Amino acid sequence: MKRTLLLLTLILASCAPQFVPRPDATLFTGYVALGDSITAGYQSASLTPASQRASYPHLLGQRAGLDVPMPEIGDPGCPPPVGVMGQPNCERSHPDIISPVVAVPGAKVHDVLATTDTQVVNPDPQLYDARLYRAILGSGTTQLEAAIARKPVFVTVWIGSNDVLLPTLRGDLSKATPVADFQADYTTVVDRLKAAGAHHLVLMTVPDVTRVPALVPVRLLRVTGLVDRSCDGQDTYFGTSTIATASQDKPLSCTSPEALTRDEYVQAQAIVEHYNAAIRAIAASHGAVVFDVNPVLDSLPGRPLIPTTASPFGRTFSLDGVHPSSFAHDRFARALAAFMNEQFGTSIDPR
C-alpha cells in the first residue's frame, strides 16, 4: 500500500463516545473488526466483560489513544467461564452502544456472510450460540451486514480458525471447510467490504491450530493411564473433549476415529497453509495487507513443564486450552501496532 496514504489510526464510528486522540495521529474514521472468538475476546470458554476489554482490538485502540468500545456482555458471562458457577448472562450491558467490533465466537468464514441468531445451516453446538449472535449483532443480522452498517473504512479481518479447528480436535479432517469454499467465501467478504467503502483492509492469517494445548499428545496421556496399549510408540493426539470421556477403566484407543494420527496432524497444518495462501492471494488482488499471526504465536511461551491449576496451559492460553489469554492479546495488540506503523506510517505505541 502506498506510503502516501493518510496516516492511519483506529477510531470509533461517528456514533461512538468522544475520545482524546494521540496528538501525532491523523484520525481515520470507520474502524470495524470482523472475526471469531479471538477478536470477540472469548477466553476460558466464555465471553465476559473483562475478557472483551482484554481483547486485541480494544487494546490496540487504547495504544492509539482511542476508544474502541466492545459489545459488552453482563457478568458472569455467556456462558460463565471455566470454574465459575452461575447462570449465563447473554444480555448486553450497554445495548445503546454501537461497537465497531462485530466478531462472533464460533464463526467460520461462511458464517460471516450468512449466519444470524435465527438463520444457520447445520450448526455445531460447540460453535454456534444464537444468544451471542443476538447480543453482538442484533436480531436477524449477519456479521457482514453489521460491519457494512457501520460504514467501514479501515477493517481488520481475522477469520478461519473454526473452519479447521474442531475437525482437528476431533480427528476428522474430512469436516474441515474445503479450500475452494474457504477462498470463495473469503473473497465475497472482501469484495463486499471494498464495495461498502472499506479502502484499507488488514487480513490476518489463520493460526496453526495444531499448536493449541487442547490437542494433547498421547505421550502426555500414558502416565495418566487414559490411553491403552494401542498407543504404545504412536505419535497420536486427542482433543480435550475426547479425553474428558476417558478413564483408567475405559482408556482411549489410538485406533479410534477421534485419534489424530501424525499424518492427520501434518494434514491439518497443510490445510491452514492452504487457507493462508488463499488469504494472501485475496489480499494481493484487492490491495489489502496481510498480518501473519503465527510469528507472534511462535514468540509466546509454550506449554509449561509443570502445569498449575490456575494456569494449566501457561501464559499464552486461557483455561479452555484453545483461546488466547489476556497476556497473548496484549502481545497481538503490540505486534499489530508495530505492523500498522510500518504499513501506514502511524505512531501507535507498540511497547
Termini distance? 24 Å
Number of strands: 6
CATH architecture of the largest domain: 3-Layer(aba) Sandwich
What's the alpha carbon Rg, rounded to whole Å? 20 Å
SSE order, as H and E?
EHHHHHHEHHEEHEHHEHH
Assign the CATH class of the largest domain: Alpha Beta
| Apparent shape | globular
What portion of residues belong to β-strands? 5-15%
Helix content: 25-40%
CATH-assigned fold name of the largest domain: Rossmann fold
Number of domains: 2
Question: What structural category characterises the helix and strand content?
Answer: alpha/beta
**Uncertain residue segments:** 1-28
- The chain-level mean pLDDT equals 91
Q: What's this, in brief?
A:
The protein is α/β, with parallel strands linked by helices and 351 residues long. It contains 13 helices and six strands.
Fold and architecture overview:
Helices cover 34% and strands 7% of the residues. The protein is an alpha/beta fold. The protein has two domains: 31-207 and 270-344, Rossmann fold, CATH 3.40.50.1110; 213-260, no CATH class. The longest helix has 25 residues, at 262-286. Residues 1-28 have low confidence and may be disordered.
